[in-house]
Every structure is written in structure tokens, then in C-alpha cells.
Amino acid sequence: MADGSVFKRCACRDSDGRKLGSRCPQLRRTGGSWHPTHGRWAYQLELPAHPGQRRRQLRRSTFDSRDAATGDRDHARALLALAGDDTALAAEIADLLLAVNSGAPLPERDTIARRVRAGLPPSVATTVGEYLNQWLASRRGIEPNTVRAYESHIRIHLVPHLGAIPLQRLRVDHIEAMFTAITDRNTTIEIARQSDDPQIRATMRGQRVTGPATMHRIRATLRKALNDAIRRSNNRLIDFNPAAHVELPSGTRPKARVWTAKAVAAWKTTGVRPSPVMVWNPQQAGEFLDHAESHDPDLYPLFTLILHRGLRRGEAVGLTDTAVDFDNALITVSQQLSTHGYTPVIKKVKSESGNRVISLDSHTLAALRAYHVRRAQWKLAHGPTWPDTGFFFVRPDGRPWHPEAVTWRFECLVRDAALPPIRLHDLRHCAATFLKAAGADLKDVQELLGHSSITITGDTYTTVIAELDVERAKAEAAAQLVPRRRRPAA
User: Fold this and answer.
1) Closest listed residue to residue 303, CA positions, set 321, 323, 285
2) CB–CB of 125/168 below 8 Å?
3) Secondary structure class of 326 (helix, strand, coil)
4) pLDDT in tens, 191-228
5) What are phi and psi of 250, to 5 degrees?
6) What are the helix (H) ranges across 156-312?
7) Which domains, from first to last, does the chain contain?
8) pTM of the model
């Protein structure tokens, strides 16, 4: 059995950005001895291979000391020694060593020795649940919100339904059975909610159905995890991804619906919205802006911008002073103020198509100009302690708005104005619907909203306000659709 080598390596990179690893000149001092602080200790060990398989090595690193690396290497050699002269068993133990995640401890020798003496395979089959939790813990360099979604899918759906199945035995049938169970649960919830018995309805309080779009995201999480198991370095945990062969009903986007008089009457009777995506008609939108201008003048210009020009919440809250061009009536959208949990963070826009320049109509331009003057008065009254954040929309004390606070203020305004409910994001849908009703085609709407694909635009915006009879112009006409009691000051 080979002794293996112990050495140092680091994360330094050459001029081309490639990691130097053990080739870094800083790892050794002038006399040739290892540098005491630069780099981390590592080792590599030649492993026995299965017949017909090419040679392979165990490489483990990030040890704090030479003794730690040497001890771990000796532990690996002791596990391989359990095979004696049995080359097939030695290759199986090598499989076990390669399956251990980087940074995780090697299996205890006594545990593996007991399995070998009992004639059992040296490795205990990894279950889907164990692998998914290990996979989630290894996610690095991705958005926290993405990690949160992965965790939710794994905890709520994948582990309860698939967790006990050995990873290598997972099949398409298992995954299809999971989605069948999810669909059955949705049906149970809906039946209970419609029951005449209040006690039965109460059992579903707080329960949520899992919609088609969420099911697609659950499958995407599993498919990504299993693809990583196939691509795993040195040793493929599986050779087939069953999640890639599971078919689900189309996760179509909800259609935007208009709050017509009939829809409002039905909502007042039942409390049910016709669609998750609701938009006001122009009269309702005008009532909202009039109410916002009177009751929340600090955020009125932000709501006007979203309603007329279709920005996302984070794009509007994250708009910078340098992004607003009053002279040419343009704004540049290049970043957003989003949240991770409740913590505000500045991020790039969602896609390259979201990085866009938008023309301002006269109504929105007037509202932004008036706000800019008002903000200057705030700054003058505040004095030298005014925080210069660089954001265009700020609170009267100069601090940036928290995105959730903007949503809360919007919902209060909608409630107090006695208008049918929509989400803040639905102001963006209002902008798209008004623009389309004013004669724009889907390509115009796509460019305004910054969608990466016209398919997304078409799937969402098929509603046209049939009662409108307006000039077929674009941005200016879309703003003119919204009636106001008073004309904004220029």
C-alpha cells in the first residue's frame, strides 16, 4: 500500500486567475522548508481501483497542521488495510473514502471493521434525505434567498416523501408518487375549506396548497441536487437522474385580471379574488393616486412611478440620484434594493434585460420633479447631519426606505381608500395592462418591464380593458388613461 504524500497548498492564483494550489512559490521558504503560516496542509493517497477502472487518488486538504493531515492520511490507510488481500473489498473501501464530503470526518475504523467481519458492504447506503442535507450544506456562492428556497423544498416535501429511500435506488416512480401525494393533499385542503362545518374548515387554518409553479420548483431543486451527485468529482454517486424524467402539469403563470364592477361585487360578497394577479381599471388607479397624494405625499411619487412605468418594488426603492435624468425625461434601472429575510441588500437587476432605460411620461415627470424639490427642503431643514445615501427616494430624515415598509404603507392606502385589493407588485401589472390597452404590442410591454423573454410577458398579460377607447399612443397615452381630479404641476 502506498504511503501517500503530505504537503501544503493555498488558494493563491496566477495572472490568468487559475489556482496555484501546491505550486505557489510562497509555500516554501528560501531554504526549502514549508512556510509556517502560508497555505493549509493536505495529502493525497493512491487508491485501489475496480477492474478496468482508471487510477484514482484520495485528496483531502484544509488541515491546520501537518500532524492533522498525517493523522487523517493514516486513518484512511488503516481503513484500506481492513481489506487485506481482497482487492474487490479494497476498491469498495476506496469508494467509501471518495464519497466523504470535503471537511467531513472519515468513517470510524471500528464501525467499518465490524461490517467487514460480518460480510456486509463497507459503506452504508446513503439515503436521499442524508444526501440532500449534505448537498444543501455544501451550497456556496449562491443567493441566500435561493438557499432558503432549497431548504424549504427539502424540509417540507423532499425529505418527508423521499428521505428514507437509498439514493442509488431512487426512481421516477418514487418522485411521481410524491407529487401525487402533494396533489391529493391540495384536494383535501380545498374540500375542507369548502365544508359547511366550521370545525372542519378550522382544521385547514394556516394550511397552504402547493401550486403547479411550486411543484416545478421542487422538482428543479431535486434535479439540481441529483445532477450534482452525477457530476461529483472522482466518484459518481449515481448514474441516472430520475427527476429529469418526471412530467408535471404546465406551471402556467396566472393571467392578469381587471377589477371590473362585476368582479368587485363578487369579491365584496365572497371575499375571493378572481386571480392572484389583479389590476385596477383606470378609474380605480386614479382614485388611488389622488388618495396617495393627499394622505402619503412622501411615497406618492414612488407609487406614481411604479403605476405608470412598471418598475419592480426593489427597482423603485433602489433608484439612485444619478439614474434620474430630468432634462431628457429618462430613468436608468440598473440595481434594486431587495431583502434577504428582512435585511435590505443592494443587488443587480434580475437579468440583463432588466438593465434598461425608461422614458418618463409628463405625469410621472411632474411628480418626480415636485418630490425632488420637496426632498431638497427636507435636506435643508435637516442640516449637515442629513445622510447622503445616493438613493432618489428617501424618508423625510434622509434614510432609505425599507422595501417592506413601502409595501405596508401601500396596503394601508388601498384599505383606507376602500379600493378592491391588489398587491404593490400589481401596480406594475397595471402599467403593463394600461400600456397594452393604449395600443402597445407585447414587445413594447416586455421592454418596459424588463422581462428576459416575451413568452413571460405573453403568459401574464392577455387581459385588455375592452371598454377603453383611447388614442393608440404608447408611454404618454398609457399615463393619460388614468383620470385625475387635478392636473399635476409641471
Assistant:
1) 285
2) yes
3) coil
4) 887 778 888 888 887 788 888 889 999 999 999 999 98
5) -60, 130
6) 159-162, 172-193, 198-203, 212-231, 261-270, 282-295, 300-309
7) 5-123 (no CATH), 129-245 (1.10.150.130), 257-480 (1.10.443.10)
8) 0.59
